[in-house]
Structures are given as C-alpha cells and as structure tokens.
From TrEMBL, chains A, B, C:
Domain of life the protein comes from: Bacteria
One Pfam assignment: YjbQ
UniProt name for this protein: Secondary thiamine-phosphate synthase enzyme
Native source organism of the sequence: Desulfosarcina widdelii
Record-linked InterPro entries: UPF0047_YjbQ-like, YjbQ-like_sf
Length: 102, 102, 102
C-alpha cells in the first residue's frame, strides 16, 4: 500500500522533513530569500491578491508526498514526518489523503 | 485510483498550479533568476548543448505529479491544474500518464 | 504498476535526471549557491549538527520519485535515470522501493 498526501491549494505544500522548530524557522527565512514577498510589484500575478511569492515557495517545497505503508504503518525513516506548509494564509485549507494497493 | 503524470524529459516538468498567464510569466522570470541560462560557461554540463540551466529549473518545478481520482475525475482543489513546463525547447516532447488502483 | 523510490533521510534526495558527471557537479555548485552551508550561524537548526543547508537542498531536489513500470521495466524517457543525492554525508543511508499495482 501507498499513501498519497497532497495540498489542495496552490500556495501550500505537503512535505516531509524534520519536526524541529528551528528548522521550520530556517525554511521560512530561506524561502523568503528565494521568493521574496516584497516588492509585490515584481510579480504580474499580484492582481487582486499579493500572493505570487506563495506560488513560488510551494513549488520549492512540493505539492504532495507519496509514502509506503508497511504492516499498517507509514514506512518512515527515523526522522521523517509529514507537514503542511502554508505560504499565503487565507481561507480554510484542505488536505487530500488517498491510500491504494494491497 | 491515482494518476501518475510525468515528463519523460529531464529538462522539463509536470507541475500543478494556477492557470493564470501572469503567474506563468512570473515563474519564467523567477526560474531565470534562480538558475540563469547565461553565462553558459558557468555550467560544466554545457558541452554540445547549453541547457544545464534547464536541468536546474526542472528540479525546482518537479518531474511528476500524483493525483487522486475520485468518482472518475481528477480530485483537484478549486484552482489546481496540471501543466507541462518546458525549459529547453528542443525536440518533440512526451508525457507519461499512468492510472492505477480501483 | 508503479514504483515508489524514496530517501528515508531528510537531508537526502531521490531524483531523476541525467547520468552525466558535469551536470552533477553543476548541481553541487548550484545548490550551494541557493542554500549555502556557511556561515552555519545563519540557521537555527544548526545545533548539535551543522546540516540545516542539507535540509534545504533536499527540498529543491525532492524526496521521492514515482515511476511507471511497463512490461516489467521502468518506463523511462531516453535519458532518465534515478539518483540518490546525499547532502550531509553522515551515517549509513537507506532507500525505500515499493512497487504496487498490476
């Protein structure tokens, strides 16, 4: 069996990494450097909403993960954990989880 | 059921994001900033063809997407659409689509 | 059938690209530019081990690939090959391979 877990929003990510708050802070700072929110005028997509940078950040972090399930459990390495990364922050958000195979 | 959709070329991407031309322009500009084509001499891979930057751009945007199928339809969030991103531009291109599960 | 191939370590990647040593050198240089190791003090995660940059590099290159299997073989484009990318370098490493479907 495998599990597909994906964001249903194009300014958000589902990714696998370490459950460590310092690292998550580092991701925020790093993503802001690679895809800065300001100046909002640098992006053509910024009409109506100023979230073009969130669409960039999500591409770096990824939309989805696919994880093996073995003996009824997510078959993870020691430090692997699934996270939902939100780069825009508006609206209610949904995650899709689908399990297939035998 | 899930659908796997992937590029079969290593300088191209299949990705999911918004169907909005301003955003696609923003991606072009942004990717060129993160992985510039020029100067071509900065990449060792640029022998024969000068497309090393396309191999970088493709890693940021991703090779493939895996999408849940529910009731016979791609189970998408409101704005999710699948795109083929071409960063080199030579040759005919192919996409692989595979559907598995019940 | 599809094959899932993923790193089980959060500072490593499984990715698909060209089997060309110049390109792999280019990836090293490029990733170091996007997520520099030094100065290690720039990352909060760098307590105990100084590998925060490896967690960034892995997000760009990706954790996993999902590949179609057709007639018993990986259904690859001409130049597609699977690689394990190691960005930290400590400890023994494991890769998970899971094949599902008919």
């Amino acid at each position: 069996m495998i599990a597909l877990v994906n964001a249903m929003h194009i300014t958000a990510s589902v990714f696998i990494n370490d459950d460590e708050s310092g690292l998550h802070h580092d991701y925020d700072v790093w993503l802001e450097k690679l895809a800065p929110h300001e100046p909002v005028s640098q992006y053509r997509h910024n009409v109506g909403e100023d979230n073009a940078d969130a669409h960039m950040k999500r591409q770096i972090m990824g939309r989805e993960v696919v994880v093996a399930i073995t003996d009824g459990r997510l078959d993870f390495g020691t430090w692997e954990r699934i996270f939902y990364g939100e780069f825009d922050g508006r609206r209610k958000k949904r995650v899709l989880v689908k399990i297939i195979g035998e």
